[in-house]
Each structure stands twice: as structure tokens, then as C-alpha cells.
Amino acid sequence: MEKADKIKQAYMEYFLENGTQPQSVYSFTKKLKIKESEFYDYYNSFELLESSIWLDFFKETIQKIEAEPVYATYSVREKLLAFYYTWIEVLKQNRSYASQTWRLIDKRKLKTPTFLVDLKNAFKEYSRDLVMEGKESREVQPRKYLDERYPDAFWLQLLMVLDFWVKDKSKGFEQTDAMIEKAVNTSFDLMASSALDSVLDFAKFLYQNR
User: Where do runs of H (alpha helix) occur along the chain?
Assistant: First the structure.
């Protein structure tokens, strides 16, 4: 195991056992029996360490889905479904850590917590590529200005999936699988059909005639 991974693993174990970050990098590295400077060779703070852990979950998910030759033949809808299903499988291996860190978030605050910033940026780039691919394949209807906001909507969808999974008590998390399917199908049905255009046109009419 590489030192960076050893530090991550030790941090996750500490967090699960204590429910909080270590008091200091010094006390943490002392317990880990490494020099404090070695920690800073990889991470500037515990917050950036946490961010790296969640980004690793994303990277592992991408590696797994792209390793399957059939993934390249999928529609964009199927690619996003594959991503979510695989992402949940990756998170299952670290459910205690993922659940505990997620539950500590103040959901009333709109600001993205530090430990999810890198994940957010990576996922929005991934979803942006999916939207572009969908526009080329006509799975996504081009809409001026609005289609630029789709990655933001998908990010909110990912957070909804995560929150649902953390609270899911069904066997094998089968309710999460069902939620993912419904969420993705609904979003792509809206992006592909004229239904959304009708809703937007009606909203515009109401706004202009209030």
C-alpha cells in the first residue's frame, strides 16, 4: 500500500472510531508513526484529505465502467445509469464512512462542503460530456442557455441519490436502484421531449402576464 493510501485508510478508521477529525495533524501522524512532514507531502489539511477520498470513489467508478467494453456502446441515458449503479457499489465498500460524513452535513446550507468540491467538479465535467454526447445523438434537445445548466441539475441528482442511499433500509438497497432508474429516466425524458419546452413556455407566459 502506498503511503498516501495508508494515510487515507488510517484517517477513515480514525473518523469511524471517533466520529470526528483528529485534533491535529501532529497527533494523527504520531499515532500513525510517520513524520508530520510526510502527511504534508500528500495533503495540506484533513479537509483536502477527505476531498481526495471522495474523489477516489468517483475515479474508481469511472475506471470500472470504462473497463467494460459494452459501456462505449451505451446511450447517454444508459451511461449515467451505469455510473450511478457502479458508484453505489463502490460506496458500499465504504458505507460506514460515506454515511457518517454525509450525515454530518448541514443540508440547510446551499454551499457545497469542502470534502465534496473535487467530486463535484469531476462529476460535472463527466455529466457535461454526457450532455454534449446526448445533443449529438439527439437524446438531449438543444436548448439555449438551459442545457448549460444540465450538469448542475445532474449534480443535485447525484446528491439526491446519495442521500436516498444513506437512508435506504431495503434489502440489497433495491429501493436505491429503483430510485436511480426513475430519476435518470425522468431527467432524460424531460431533456429529450418537447414537454419541458411546453412547461418553460407556459412559465414564461405566466411571468410576462402577472
Answer: 3-18, 25-32, 36-40, 46-66, 76-92, 95-103, 114-136, 150-167, 174-192, 195-208
